[in-house]
Amino acid sequence: MEQSFVDFVQPLQRKTATLLILPFWYRWRLSKHFPRASRTLLTIPIFTICLIIAIGIDQSQRTSRWRLLLMTESEEVEWSHRRFEEVLNTESKSILNQQDHRIKLIKKICDRLITALEIETPISAATWPRDEIGIKQRMKRIEARNGVKPSATTGSSLMPWKPETSNPEKILETRDWDLFVIDLPKINAFVLPTKEIFVYSGLLDLLDEDESLTAAIIAHEISHVIERHAVENMGFSALSAVAFDVIRGISFALTISFPIVSDGLATMINYLNNVVAERAYSRKLETEADELGLLIMARAGYDPRAALALWGLLNEVENEQKERGEVNWSDKVPWTRTHPTGQNRETAIRKALPKAMKVFNDSIKHPKDSTSIKNETNLKLAT
Fold first, then answer.
1. pLDDT value at position 190?
2. Phi and psi dihedrals of 176, rounded to 5?
3. CB 191 within 8 Å of CB 198
4. Which candidate among 81, 96, 356, 382 keeps its CA 20 to 30 Å from the CA of 140?
5. Which residue windows are transmembrane per the record (predicted)?
6. Which secondary-structure segment (H or E) carries 349?
7. Residue range 356-366: average pLDDT?
8. Partners of residue 180 on adjacent β-strands
9. How much is the pTM?
10. Domain ranges, ordered by start, for the chain
11. Among candidate residues 301, 315, 303, the one with its CA nearest the CA of residue 347
12. Is 279 in contact with 336 (CB distance < 8 Å)?
């Protein structure tokens, strides 16, 4: 059986535990008596950390930003399948069918967004090599559905056709995305790496089914997926855990004679790691998704200034929830939030708007470079 990337990295991460020994080693001055062992204890974790970074380091094609990805795409797909099954198990009965008027709105928006998204990543006519893992993943996805059909399907206008087949084992990248509109009062929308887009009717009601506002939030969620933000967050958490383990080890070695002080420092360090550091990184990824979402919706022909109205509206909803006491304490303090505050979000969006407006104006002046590709291609096929 093929070893997964995570199975390979996790043992390496455990080897960094030798860093916890070093503070005690030097506190008791064992390094003077065992210099070779001291060098080994220091070399193993440093080499391991460097190896993990070398394996997982990746540069985003869209932002040119370096990040740590400790999960392969196939493992990310496997995680997405599990998440998909969880959603179906609890909310499959609330999925709206194609006759609902809201489906047409979501499909129209997603058709434009997906087309704009894939203009920069055109589809090759070639298929990926056939492999057993891919087949099993596809079969699991079909079995997970249990007969549940999506509300609609959208695909890239760059390839508006696909070969018909009833063979579930046929591997062909068609770039199709499945849309699920769920009739529940939740104010939420999310996208899975396996190309499933979920939108809740509660969100549509809040936005009064406004096309531009809905496009802004779907573009934001799509940005998370195309940049693999969930995987990146896991990579940062792993690296952060190692760094704070070292700090914990040093503080414990220095305060071992003072249990109360030691426990207090450990609690504070855990708080800094779990609440401050990881959530600060999450806010960074949210800001990046906002900026990329602006570009995607602008390229699709939607005015990116709608994003300001969207997040302003959602900020008002959050403030109302605070007044009713429905918000956790962690969301009331800026540095413990997983998402930026409304004010910070507005500032970041305004900063990114000039670039997005340029893309939007270009898409209006030259529609052939954006969402009109589908109509033009279909016309050529018809003739």
1. 96
2. -80, 145
3. yes
4. 96
5. 40-57
6. helix 342-365
7. 90
8. 198
9. 0.80
10. 1-59, 70-226
11. 315
12. yes
